[in-house]
Amino acid sequence: MKLSLVESRLFGRICYGYRRNKQGLVEIVPEEAEVVKTVFGLYRDGSSLEGIQNYLFSQGIPSPSGKAQWSRDVLNKLLNNGKYTKGIIKFEEYCDVYFLKGENCRNPNQAKVVKTYAESDQRGIRMGIRPDQREVSGACE
Fold first, then answer.
1. Cα distance between residue 65 and residue 104, in whole Å
2. CA–CA separation, 13 vs 7, rounded Å?
3. Packing angle between helix 30-44 and helix 72-80, nearest 10 degrees?
4. Which residues lie closer than 8 Å to 129 by C-beta, 6 or more apart?
5. Backbone angles phi, psi at 16, to 5 degrees
6. What H or E segment, with its residue span, contains residue 136?
7. Quick count: other Cβ atoms within 10 Å of Cβ 59?
8. Do residues 58 and 50 touch, judged by C-beta distance below 8 A?
């Protein structure tokens, strides 16, 4: 899959799982896209960042920088990156991980994330964060 010229221009910095072709269009790197899907799947199934880190190391999958071991920081950034909804994972999968990460947050002062509604094939997506009963919609758009 390739993004359009306009989408490619707006895409910004290329992240793991994507590359620019000779025409400057953003396209998916299939092998890396499978790793991204695996990371999201493992997290959704309850694996910790350390567990995912150990799994990738045991499978011999190098980090984006080519190191043998993935850092938890890199995995966290990957899971927080909404660009992966452009052809690698579904919007719902990204939002599932977003809300799981909110539930797993160790900082008690951070806003509690509450899932209210998520459908990527409809306009008017309703999702939000509820800090102290004040709802802020559109947190995952």
1. 27
2. 12
3. 90
4. 102, 111, 112, 113, 114, 135, 136, 139
5. -55, 130
6. strand 136-137
7. 9
8. no
The residue with tokens 């998916």 is 28
**Beta carbons of 124 and 138 less than 8 angstroms apart:** no
For residue 15, the SS3 value is coil
CA dist., res. 94 & res. 91, Å (int): 5
In whole angstroms, give the CA distance from residue 53 to residue 70. Answer: 6
What is the pLDDT tens value at each position of the chain, 141 positions in all?
666 655 656 566 788 998 888 888 888 999 999 999 999 999 999 999 999 999 999 999 999 999 999 999 999 999 998 888 888 999 999 999 988 887 766 655 554 545 555 555 544 444 444 444 333 333 443
> Tokens representing 10?
């707006």
Round to whole Å and give the CA distance between 68 and 78: 17
Whole-angstrom distance, CA of residue 108 vs CA of residue 119: 29
Which pTM does this prediction carry?
A: 0.70
Find the helix or strand (DSSP H, E) in which 91 lies: helix 91-103
How many Å apart are CA 74 and CA 110, to the nearest integer?
Answer: 21
Tokens of 81: 């990156």
